Amino acid sequence: xKEDAAAFAVVSGDYALTSPKLFIPADTTRYYxxxxxxxxxxxxxxxxxxxxxxxxxxxxxxxxxxxSSSGPVLFVQERxxxxxxxxxxxxxxxxxxxxxxxxxxxxxAMFINGDKSGCADSxxxxxxxxxxxxxxxxxxxxxxxxxxxxELPQLFNIxxxxxxxxxxxxxxxxxxxxxxxxxxxxxxxVPGLTGLWQVSGRSSVSFEEMVRLDVRYINSxxxxxxxxxxxxTIPVVLKGTGGY
Length: 244
Hints:
mainly alpha, globular, two-stranded parallel ribbon, 8% strand, two-stranded antiparallel sheet, 4 strands
């Protein structure tokens, strides 16, 4: 199918992000169709296996976070999942405890509204769609973010059924205050630990293109597409290319 070919082209790096801007709304027929249960089964099996394998790493990170600064080891935040349902989202804490989120609220608004100059000004002229100069980040937090190790606690979200291994990233509630109606299409899927956006440019991709990639993923979903995205995620993480 054409949608399959286009999605696989994104994963392989052949898809041009400057492609025609025709927007096709999310159609969950494939995503929640006959093979939908396969996705959930794979999520539970792989997430459980990963937790067993990385448990020593989780313990080490917890100790480092606890010793590096005061505050809890985990950062628990309300995010929006499938159809906008709120859930408690877990990460290793990478910021000073009780930090003001005003700087991120401002950047998120600029990112979602396509304010390229504002995003660049926040990053000392560097044109990336990620807040790189964040004074709230601790020294160990910077390392965790660069290696994506701060995301490992989301394996528990996956086992609980609030997230999937692959899918759109879950937004913070205040972010959707800046959404246009068509942006909400990305919330029709279960949010993921990684996704088509992460392996297609991440911080170099605008919010509008991120939404298009998320919806393309929903429309093109298949077990094989998930596998390809998971495999593509490994070199992305090893290179330390950051995401928003």
